[in-house]
């Protein structure tokens, strides 16, 4: 099956790609392995041709899952993984030193059963290590034929420029949706100027814009339990805007998820949407949004719904925010700030 394609830095990929995190990590009970394998293969069958994993996801098991599920179809998709964040002895680690990046990459190659990864991101910015050193390690890996291209995640425009001066950056990914607009401060324009692709992760706002959240009664292990905007007393306020968004979607014959992804894709031609899901039905819905086109008036209507303080609360808890370099919005307040 064919999907609309976009230029994502050096790649030509489907405008909706797939994040694999949900299959091993972050949202409570993970699916059965056979169900996860079925979903990954269905994504390729639908025309999705870029998969996004990471050394951290599932403490490394997500990379193993991708290899088992679709390793035999490696010529059908671009494979992206990430370093700097990883697991060691069952604990989450943040380490952007060149020697650690090299070691974590070797582990990823082994788990993925690959000699080379198409795109390797710095998952987060290790503030204790100059970005030039971390990117230099990826440049060395590229020269050695272990990765093809370099990516960055959740970084600001100045960091992108410093990294790009060391070695060309192919893709930047950050959270971006109608409720999270931080990349609009400087990152989207910087990527466009430098010829860097932009992958918008969590385009459905972690389920908020997929009509999947009505209370903060999350299962154990769900990362939204520590994200202020997804918990009371802020959630009730935020759902008022979500209800308006849902009504707008219905009025245009779309589901909320499809409207959210269509809104992301309408922002710029160098942007692709990077949702994740554990549900085959949701996968089909997300991929269908690649064919949706919305009028500028609908884009503006979405913008109006989420203007001002329509969504209250930081998107990350304070400890996680320490690893985020993306610019803040005017007036944006962080937890405990």
Automatic annotation (TrEMBL):
Occurrences of domain NADP-dependent oxidoreductase (ranges): 16-305
Keyword match Oxidoreductase: yes
Transmembrane segments: none
Keywords: Oxidoreductase
Organism: Novosphingobium marinum
Any matching Pfam family: Aldo_ket_red
Protein name listed in UniProt: NADP-dependent oxidoreductase domain-containing protein
Assigned GO CC terms: cytoplasm
InterPro entries assigned to the protein according to its UniProt record, in alphabetical order: Aldo-Keto_reductase, NAD(P)_OxRdtase_dom_sf, NADP_OxRdtase_dom
Sample GO molecular function, one term: oxidoreductase activity
Keyword Amino-acid biosynthesis: no
PANTHER family referenced in this protein's UniProt entry, alphabetically: AFLATOXIN B1 ALDEHYDE REDUCTASE (PTHR43625), ALDO-KETO REDUCTASE YAKC [NADP(+)] (PTHR43625:SF40)
